[in-house]
Amino acid sequence: PPPADPPEKTSDDVTIVFDHEGMTIENLLTWWTQSTGRRFIYDQRIIGKAAKVHLTGPVVIKHENVDWFFEGILVNAGLALVQSGPPKAKTFKVEHLDQARWLKQRARFVPEQEVRRLERSPAQVFLTSITLRHAKAAQIRQAAAYILSNRNAEYLQETGPKSLLVCGFGPTLVAIAALVRAVDKEDNVQPERNR
Predict the structure, then answer these.
(1) 3-state SS, residue 108
(2) Average pLDDT rounded to a whole number, residues 72-95
(3) Could you tell me what percent of the chain has a pLDDT over 70?
(4) How far, in Å, CA of 188 to CA of 74, rounded?
């Protein structure tokens, strides 16, 4: 059954409280729809009928952060979101992180200059291409490998000596783009060693 009450909203703040028994993912998705209008397609075999998430106390957040908060809970429960249909439909398919190939195939492409806005999408997998000015792709790939948080759903591939293809969760792409901005400077490039 759906939860008795959606999150309580006071002005721009939303108070989220789970009872002491926790909340099923199904009820969490229902709450989420009531709070923000996002819609979800899911298979109970994937989300688990009995799987529950717990909060140790009330959480008060701004209404514009509700999607970010719920996405964080979802990814910590081992689930991810894939946009289904046009963005204005606000409809997402819920998938298990074990479905890595499917997640990578459905990753939405985001141009490099728009990557910064993905920080608030921790349960969605995106794809971008990064062009380097000074550093070599191999150098960045080695440094960025430590940032990849889920090797099942994330990867970084050299597509040329000065370009990378990056697939990952929103915050991972933001971190890799920040690393590139910090390292891809003319004075950071190390000269080739004579062999």
Answers:
(1) strand
(2) 91
(3) 89
(4) 38
Q: Based on the structure, what is the number of domains in the chain?
A: 2
According to DSSP, residue 72 is labeled H
In degrees and rounded to multiples of 5, residue 22 shows phi and psi of 85, -175
Same-domain pairing of 91 and 161: no
The stretches of 66-169 forming alpha helices (DSSP H) are: 66-76, 100-105, 137-144
Q: How far apart are CA 73 and CA 162, in angstroms?
A: 36
Q: Residue 82 in contact with residue 90, Cβ under 8 Å?
A: no
Q: Which residues constitute the domain of residue 155?
A: 101-195
The span from the CA of 95 to the CA of 175, in Å, is: 24
Q: Give the H/E segment covering residue 40.
A: strand 39-41
Q: Is pLDDT above 90 for 132?
A: yes
| Rounded CA separation 32/67 (Å) | 8
Whether residues 5 and 71 fall in one domain: yes
Same domain, 128 and 150: yes
pTM: 0.82
- The helices-and-strands tally (H runs, E runs) of the chain is 6, 12
Residue written as token pair 């099942």:
152
- Whether 186 and 134 have beta carbons less than 8 Å apart is answered as yes
Instruction: Sheet containing 155-160: give its strands across.
Output: 108-109, 125-131, 163-169, 155-160
